[in-house]
Amino acid sequence: MRGRLTLWPTVIAAVVLVAGAVATYLTARHDLHGADLRHLRVELAIGCVAGTAVALVLSRLLARRTVRPLDELAATTAHVRATGNVTPRVHARRRDEVGRLAAEIDALLDALERARDAQRRLTTDAAHQLTAPVARLRASVEQSAQADGDIAARTRELDELVAELVELSRDGEMPLEPEDVRLDEIVREAVDAAPDTVRYETDLEPAALEGSPYRLGRAVQSLLDNADGHSARGGVVEVRLRGGELTVRDYGPGIPPDELPYVFDRFYRGANAQAARLGAGLGLAIVRQVATQHGGTIVAEHPPGGGALFRLRLPGARAPA
Question: Which of 41, 150, 162, 319 is spaced 20 to 30 Å from 183 by Cα?
Fold first, then answer.
């Protein structure tokens, strides 16, 4: 309650005022002269200094007690915002305004976690239900000698969409025993397997880390697909790996500043992506998911000279033994 937060400063102020009043009364009540008066003055000065010091110490302790849970609240919300992980809780046991605020934040995170679980279940069920019929449809179209090229292309897109849904349904899942993988080799294999519609300029420093080779490869492939889709035919895509950071830069139309905060959201497709008729907007969401699972981050930038730059940072990467 508010009264509990302000109780100690009020008590301290009252004690100081009472002490001053008593000292003033004693000075006026007794006709003190000479040494007695000097002693009283010294005692009053010492009492004032000591009282001020005690007040400062108690105020400092009170401030710490009040600010610490606010720091915990700020740290928790910052972690949720940066990682998308809604599992941390504050668990404040105070009964004042700060405690009520912490309880409301925990309740909000509980609701977000339930909503995310429901979304994950829906995505998982839909993806698995669609996998078999879409695979049969694609096989039938590809086996037909008179298959229309556009129909075949749309069928492949549908197949890729289902594959991306399955990938996203693995949110939070990682191998029980992560493997030692070479990130530079994963990037090299993804570049070699990419379509030749653009020219890749690579500079790959050897790097090893523990993780899922399949998931890391999927993230790299999504970054390359995104750069390819936004580049002109025959354009250049720069791929660099240095100090555990993978950068992929294209020279396409770039990402408008107002779209940068949303490019990693599921199903988000900016104006440039829609004009290029790119996928359903799941590839970059997969990249963020994989980065989070490996303790890393992914950011998008609008670099000088145009185009788009993506930075995949994996702190666990190290030089190979």
Answer: 162
Tokens 């200094």 found at: 49
Rounded CA gap, 130 and 134, in Å? Answer: 6
Contacts of 30 (CB under 8 A, 6+ apart): none
Query: Which tens digit of pLDDT belongs to each residue from 10-31?
Result: 555 556 555 655 555 555 555 5
Q: Which of 271, 276, 275, 281 is closest to 228 using CA atoms?
A: 276
Judge whether 84 and 109 are in contact, CB under 8 Å. Answer: no
Check if the beta carbon of residue 295 is closer than 8 Å to that of residue 233: no
> How many other C-beta atoms are found inside a 10 Å radius of the C-beta of residue 89?
14
Given a contact cutoff of 8 angstroms between Cβ atoms, the answer to whether 251 and 231 are in contact is: yes
Q: What is the DSSP letter of 241?
A: E
**CA–CA gap between residue 170 and residue 124 (Å, rounded):** 8
DSSP-derived 3-state class of residue 105: helix
What separation, in Å, do the N-terminal and C-terminal C-alpha atoms of the chain show?
Answer: 58
Which residues fall within 8 angstroms of residue 16, CB to CB, at 6 or more apart? 51, 52, 55
Give the β-pairing of 199-204 and 297-301.
Answer: unpaired
Which contiguous run of DSSP H or E holds residue 285?
helix 283-293
282 phi and psi angles, rounded to 5 deg = -110, -20
Q: What is the pLDDT of residues 146-159, one digit of tens each?
A: 556 666 666 766 77
In the prediction, which pLDDT does 176 show?
Answer: 47
Rounded Cα distance between 148 and 159, Å, is 17
Lowest pLDDT segment from 140-149, 194-203, 230-239, 311-320: 140-149
Per the structure block, which two tokens stand in for 264? 């990693």
State which H helix or E strand residue 23 sits in: helix 2-29
